[in-house]
């Protein structure tokens, strides 16, 4: 049976697998050796692809899709601050003799949401995975929009509270400084946002409320600018489910004066969105 | 010579004219009788169109373009809070036997900027006319984007300072509460933003600085979300020229950590953008 090799390259983990028509036939997770430098990450991806593409009973990989962060075209990883990449050609990521297609990690995951997830049948969607950071993918008129230079969707660094909390990017008051899973955890001295959610003390409640309010402010702005029909929250924080989207819907409506808010849903694909998105890239090879 | 009838219907004035290929052959301005109710405005537009379409030496109007505020399709003014319209068909706006096309006022002006103005040859542009209010038109991949329901571009009401100055919309901290020409004037007890600019006292300087900073915050957010190559400032406030865009460019760059700002230019078409945009609508009849 024909299938594709898909790898979603995150800052901490790489998720790889074999996929056919949106069905994950095999999946595996490996650490991303980010601290070992740009070449080490490329070598690790290449080794991962080689093993995923190795002969398996009844499965025949026909192409490779790699979802990576930064500025990316189908043929080049143009720039990645996270990995220190500049103009890495797609062929550098594999030793196997299969066609390889690169794509932007968040936009690829957004494409999977459009194809298989909560955003199916909605042409105008904002997809917002929340994890270590916060990124966004914009589906406009049914197509993913990358902006003039491929940098669209950087919603994690919009200034929701000008001159507010410091952010790792160097600015203050960014959405991510309040609402990324890592910021929520760090502000409460925890190792995860789930740990914060399970606490009932005043500090944890205030940090969570400020995270939801920051998201409501950023989504109010995105709604006014872009008028999406649907917002899909993905990434690790989406696992909070109703504890997140319930108050978020209320606060978003409260921040909008003269228009109804868009629907806000949790991703149905969860962390698989990235892998399925990488597989969609492979199908364009 | 063939030409089109164009009317740009603003909240205070209607600008009408005869246009051919982006050249204004005749232009006239009339007050909009907004306080007299929904039907009075429609009747005034109809009378204006009839007179514009009347026989003139050597000019033969072939169609009518009307740029109006609110939610609008080519055949209907679906909703306008400013005029109290609901589902007004295009034919209701004229008695003449010419085809009529309706369009959104700000997006039509944005189309003119794309066709004739500063945005020519840039596919990804944010056009921001600043006057009594602040609106926006988004050109994405060379096409104007209206959002899921036609409400995109409402940048005047994005919350730049959450819980800041009260806005007429009922929210607080909206961009328009700081940076619309009318807000700038009202905060200084003046009748126009030009009067504020000509003052050198501390209050006037602070109000102007806060207006520019609010614009920088909103544009930083729009830049991070949409990655436009160019921002075009139009409307009455654009007449401030370098006094506006000079400090705006500096403050926008200061609000962006990891990416360069888009170019920021003043509209070359100025207040004619709306009329030329209405004429472009007519050419689609």
UniProtKB/TrEMBL annotation, chains A, B:
Domain of life: Bacteria
Transmembrane segments annotated in the record for this chain: none
Pfam hit, one: ROK
Signal peptide (UniProt feature, chain positions): none
Gene3D superfamilies reported for this sequence: 3.30.420.40
InterPro entries xref list: ATPase_NBD, ROK
Family under the similarity heading: Belongs to the ROK (NagC/XylR) family.
The name this protein goes by in its record: ROK family protein
Top-level taxonomy: Bacteria, Bacillati, Actinomycetota, Actinomycetes, Streptosporangiales
């Amino acid at each position: 049976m024909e299938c594709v090799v898909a790898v979603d390259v995150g800052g901490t983990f790489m998720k790889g697998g074999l996929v056919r028509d949106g069905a994950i036939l095999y999946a595996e997770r490996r650490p991303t050796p980010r601290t070992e430098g740009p070449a080490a990450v490329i070598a690790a991806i290449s080794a991962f692809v080689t093993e995923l593409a190795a002969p398996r009973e009844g499965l025949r990989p026909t192409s490779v899709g790699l979802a990576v962060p930064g500025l990316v075209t189908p043929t080049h990883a143009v720039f990645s601050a996270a990995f220190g990449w500049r103009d890495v050609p797609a062929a550098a990521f594999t030793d196997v003799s299969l066609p390889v297609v690169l794509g932007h990690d968040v936009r690829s995951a957004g494409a999977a949401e459009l194809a298989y997830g909560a955003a199916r049948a909605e042409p105008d969607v904002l997809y917002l995975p929340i994890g270590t950071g916060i990124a966004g993918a914009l589906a406009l008129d049914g197509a993913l929009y990358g902006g003039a230079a491929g940098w669209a969707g950087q919603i994690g660094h919009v200034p929701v509270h000008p001159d507010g909390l410091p952010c790792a990017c160097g600015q203050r008051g960014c959405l991510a400084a309040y609402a990324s899973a890592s910021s929520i955890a760090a502000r409460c001295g925890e190792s995860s946002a789930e740990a914060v959610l399970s606490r009932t003390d005043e500090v944890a409640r205030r940090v969570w409320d400020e995270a939801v309010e920051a998201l409501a402010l950023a989504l109010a702005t995105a709604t006014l600018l872009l008028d999406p029909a649907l917002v899909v929250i993905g990434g690790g924080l989406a696992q909070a489910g109703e504890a997140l989207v319930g108050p978020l819907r209320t606060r978003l409506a409260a921040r909008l004066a003269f228009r109804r808010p868009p629907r806000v849903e949790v991703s149905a694909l969860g962390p698989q969105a990235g892998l399925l998105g990488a597989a969609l890239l492979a199908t364009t090879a």
